[in-house]
User: Which sequence fits this backbone?
């Protein structure tokens, strides 16, 4: 197990040859329609009361490596997967109820048929460096996952794209080689975060438009983030700052939680969960 979001785990399994493309799509659609265990927990517990703002959170993940990279194309570990969702935003997302929602996109719709998709972008998305997001950033970010040289885990999906164009600063049109009603689900993958571009190219991986801004990154060890005061959604980023640490050993990770060294841990097996219930 790991701390990846369910649909990112599907992507990794596809990349490793454990799933066919058809199996992936079937599972991804089921995930979007039926929700997930974590979604159920969020809706019944976390969303039951209004969260308080402020404070510092320490999170321990179970995956991390000295070769980890901030480049979203390289989905290297659970740690970087966590970061990609923290400092970046994608065109779409799966919400806490397991439903597909627009994120950077304000809305999306099918064109002539399901081989054409039109994404209308929000006009209030600002990157951490102050740059306002436009369709050029979306095209540059998604385009990196295509082509012979691409090492992206999403390559097989992104190469369905035969046309990637804009209609002004806030509309992106995507033409696929075949109809795909599931394509917006795929665009919520962590590695498909939208990054700022310069002259059609993405040059920095540490700047995103997510609800947290990166302060420090030590591959395989820790990441530090702080709340983005300019994020376009008010129901995000309730803590002021957070530190994500990698603790690979499950016993050490559990002990870190019990001693108060960290506040949240990932990848708890059923035995450990039972042990923690009464605490």
Assistant:
């Amino acid at each position: 197990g790991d701390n990846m979001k369910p649909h990112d785990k599907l992507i990794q399994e596809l990349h490793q040859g454990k799933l066919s493309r058809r199996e992936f799509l079937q599972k991804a659609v089921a995930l979007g329609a039926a929700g997930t265990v974590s979604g159920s927990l969020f809706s019944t517990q976390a969303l039951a009361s209004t969260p308080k703002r402020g404070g510092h959170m320490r999170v321990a993940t179970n995956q991390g490596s000295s070769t980890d990279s901030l480049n979203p194309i390289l989905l290297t570990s659970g740690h970087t997967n966590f970061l990609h969702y923290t400092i970046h935003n994608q065109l779409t997302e799966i919400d806490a109820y397991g439903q597909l929602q627009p994120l950077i996109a304000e809305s999306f719709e099918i064109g002539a048929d399901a081989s054409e998709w039109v994404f209308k972008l929000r006009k209030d998305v600002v990157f951490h460096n102050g740059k306002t997001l436009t369709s050029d950033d979306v095209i540059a970010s998604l385009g990196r996952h295509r082509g012979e040289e691409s090492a992206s885990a999403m390559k097989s999906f992104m190469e369905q794209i035969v046309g990637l164009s804009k209609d002004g600063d806030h509309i992106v049109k995507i033409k696929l080689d075949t109809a795909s009603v599931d394509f917006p689900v795929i665009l919520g993958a962590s590695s498909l975060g939208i990054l700022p571009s310069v002259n059609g190219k993405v040059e920095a991986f540490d700047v995103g438009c997510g609800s947290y801004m990166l302060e420090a990154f030590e591959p395989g060890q820790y990441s530090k983030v702080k709340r983005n005061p300019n994020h376009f959604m008010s129901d995000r980023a309730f803590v002021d700052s957070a530190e994500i640490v990698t603790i690979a050993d499950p016993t050490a990770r559990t002990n870190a939680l019990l001693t108060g060294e960290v506040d949240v841990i990932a990848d708890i097996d059923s035995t450990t969960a039972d042990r923690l219930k009464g605490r």
User: Anything to note?
Assistant: The chain has a mean pLDDT of 84. The two ends are 23 Å apart (CA to CA). The first strand starts at residue 56 and ends at 61.
